[in-house]
Amino acid sequence: MRMFSCPACGATAFFSNMACVCGVELMFDPAKHGFAVNVPACSNRAEISCNWAADTNTAGLCRSCAMTKVIPDAFRGDNRMLWASAEASKRWVLATLARWSWFTPEDAGQSPEFHLLSEDTASGPAVVVMGHADGLVTINLAEADPVEKIRRREALSERLRTMTIHFRHEIAHFLFERLTASRPEFPDAFRAIFGDEREDYGKALKRHYANGPPEGWTDEFITPYASSHAHEDWAESAAHVMHLTDMLDSAVASKLLLPPLNNLDYDAYAERDPDPLIDAAAAYGVSLNHVNRSMGHGDIYPFVHKPAVRAKLVAAHGWISGFAA
Ligand SMILES: [Zn+2]
Ligand SMILES: [Zn+2]
Ligand SMILES: [Zn+2]
Asked: Residue 169 Cα, ligand 3 centroid: separation in angstroms?
């Protein structure tokens, strides 16, 4: 993510800022990819601290909030806080995907719809399964709670589990559908590298949860879950391309200079060649992991890329960036 400036005074403004130190209210305008002042605010601003400007086409909501079709009962328990936190992650992910033109006014294709559901409902505890189906992304808001997120991460033995990661993974499934519909060469290219996604999905997941990943999975898969089915291998790989590109973009915006890059004008989202992008992002990952340890935090990016995994990241980058030949 880039860093921005206040249009009134020029002070640095971060993506989630609601107001500037000079006192003006800040509204992020996704069309301009920057902050505006004195423009209509998203009608969810007071309710969930959405700092985006209203979209002219969406009855007072911003472009991101308008993509959410179902919200939780905000008057129950922590639901409003969980909804606000999930929407903040969603805005981040959508703003960064817009750098590759996804879901922008220039993008003629369909956008995903989101159902942000709580397990805490008026009719008792609900089972909410995260996932994507036919353009609809379902998110379980329970994981916007930091304690619950860590409890589930430990239960599933995952290295990293955040709302931002969930949104990227589920949107990657949606991008598979967009690419299948718009790029005739995509299905064959996909199967050559990720395998045949027509394999029975239910059976594949059952097998994964019963047996775990195959021995030696790290040679071929970025995460254990990626080994469950070609669809999940794609979603995990494409999400990792989003993580790496954004991590690098944020590092450059923060003026962190490391040897593989040495260029503060570098635009990770404009990079057509995935190799230097992945090399630089991986180098930043190693350094930032070390920085995190100085405060006792976990690693920002605890993953390694074996050659077969790297090939999947390279392929996914080509497709989701739009730079694939
Ligand atoms: Zn200002
Ligand atoms: Zn909004
Ligand atoms: Zn998935």
From this structure: 6
Nearest ligand, CA of residue 13? 1
**Residues lying with their CB under 5 A of ligand 1, a single-atom ion:** 6, 8-9, 11, 20, 22
Mean per-residue pLDDT, 179-208? 96
* Amino acid found at 179: L
The amino acid occupying position 109 is G
- Strand 136-140 and strand 4-5: the pairing is unpaired
Full DSSP string of 163-212: HHHHHHHHHHHHHHHHHHHH-TTHHHHHHHHH--TTS-HHHHHHHHHHH-
Task: Give CA angle at 224 (297, 149), nearest 5°.
Answer: 40
Q: Contact 217/224 with Cβ under 8 angstroms? A: yes
Closest ligand (CA of 8)? 1
User: Which of 217, 192, 213, 198 is CA-nearest to residue 314?
Assistant: 192
What is the pLDDT averaged over residues 101-113? Answer: 96
Query: What is residue 84's predicted lDDT score, i.e. its pLDDT?
Result: 97
What pLDDT score does 325 carry?
A: 59
Spatial distance between the Cα atoms of 36 and 18, rounded to a whole number of angstroms: 11
Query: Is the Cβ–Cβ distance between 122 and 99 less than 8 Å?
Result: no
Q: How far apart are CA 140 and CA 37, in angstroms?
A: 33
Average pLDDT in the chain: 95
Residue 34 to residue 98: CA distance in whole angstroms: 12
Query: What is the chain's percent helix, strand, coil content, to nearest 5?
Result: 45, 10, 45
pLDDT tens digits, one per residue of 213-257: 999 999 999 999 999 999 999 999 999 999 999 999 999 999 998
Centroid of ligand 3 to alpha carbon of 91 (angstroms)? 20
* Ligand in nearest proximity to the CA of 22: 1
How many Å lie between the centroid of ligand 1 and the Cα of residue 207? 55
CB-count burial class (<10 Å; 0-12, 13-18, 19+) for 232: buried
Mean pLDDT for the stretch of residues 85-114: 97
Q: What contacts 24+ positions apart, CB below 8 Å, involve 107-110?
A: 109/178, 109/181, 109/182, 110/135, 110/178
